[in-house]
Amino acid sequence: MTSDHLLPRNATRLVKVGTTSIGAGNPIVIQSMCATSTRNIELTSKQIQALSDAGAGLVRLAVDSRKDAEAALEIAARVDANLCIDLQENWRLAQVLAPGVAKIRYNPGHLHHHERSLDWQEKVRRIASWAAEGDTALRVGVNCGSVDPAMKEAWPADDSISPMVTSALEHAEFLDSIGFDRYVVSLKDSDPNLVIEANRRFASQRPEIPLHLGVTEAGLPPDGIVKTRIAFEQLISRGIGDTIRVSLTLPNPQKSQEVTAGRKILEDIAQGRVRSVVHYQGGGPNIISCPSCSRVENEAFVELAQQVKQLSQQFSQHDITIAVMGCRVNGPGETDDADLGLWCAPSFVNLKRGSESLGAFPYDQILDRLQQEIEALIGQRGSIQ
Q1: Radius of gyration, CA atoms only, the chain
Q2: CATH of 286-384, one of 1.10.357.140, 3.30.413.10, 3.20.20.140, 3.30.70.1140
Q3: Partners of 367 in beta bridges
Q4: Could you report the per-residue pLDDT of 257-282, keeping only the tens digit for each?
Q5: 4-270: what fold?
Q6: What is the pTM assigned to this prediction?
Q7: Comparing C-alpha atoms, which of 6, 8, 14, 5 is closest to residue 208?
Q8: Tens digit of pLDDT for each residue in 2-26?
């Protein structure tokens, strides 16, 4: 049990999510996400129970298809936990899911992928209508790797924060305008400094809206916990944040570590046991890896992320960012800003240098090729200097 009464809190409005309450001074809700396949009903139900037992007040499931949605509804009928559904491009699945789950998260950037003849306002109007009819809450989840294309075009390429904040504000304003206020907003990046700045900007303009905090693709522990801790300390100590997730790259049986890490961070902040770091400086290799979830098509992704981290240690004097992503949904876009990026398919790994594709390689060959690219990148930087 964390000492939530010791934490400063913004006066946000109440959002009911199943049996839990977010905002309005209620205890900060810790979330996690299942890494099992949503269609594996038995295994996913067990993982939900394990996350709930660890203290998760909300558990998220990825849903990409009608079969996923049907499985999620069956899971929801079996478990007592509050379930949040993570919609991807198939936004119409909200109609199927809303009556049976506590919350639905949609990504403004993903609304542009299906049915482009409909504008995003009409899609959100329908999602909100289904949510209202199904007595479920929404999360507007803005993510650094999939920002609304129109927003990205409206701002300079070196400004990644303004498109995220503007998109979140735009969707919040629209939901309010149609009379739907049962929603939470999140603004996530893999850089804790950007997470801090984006959430501070949003909260300064809409302090009444509950915020879900997290550093996306924080990576492997302990580094991922440190990145997340920095962001949470700087935001929660200012009263910003009503619900959190520590997103870590972990094997399936260890997913509850996300919850225990979140509880520890909240307890430390409440007791004043915080780091004196205001600005996160990540010298040396920076490994960005997504939290394992049900979209991962090969569980070897987690081991690969660990191997990449180990490989990078021999280049400890060089500032290199390597992104390791576990699926085709987030992998292609969310590796673009890294020096080198890997995104994993069922039987091969796609390798990128920035936004340029370098080809696909078997799992047992990718590390050798990655090392070659790291050495080439370091050599190129040395010749430029």
Answers
A1: 20
A2: 3.30.413.10
A3: none
A4: 999 999 999 999 988 887 644 455 56
A5: TIM Barrel (3.20.20)
A6: 0.81
A7: 14
A8: 456 668 889 999 999 999 999 999 9
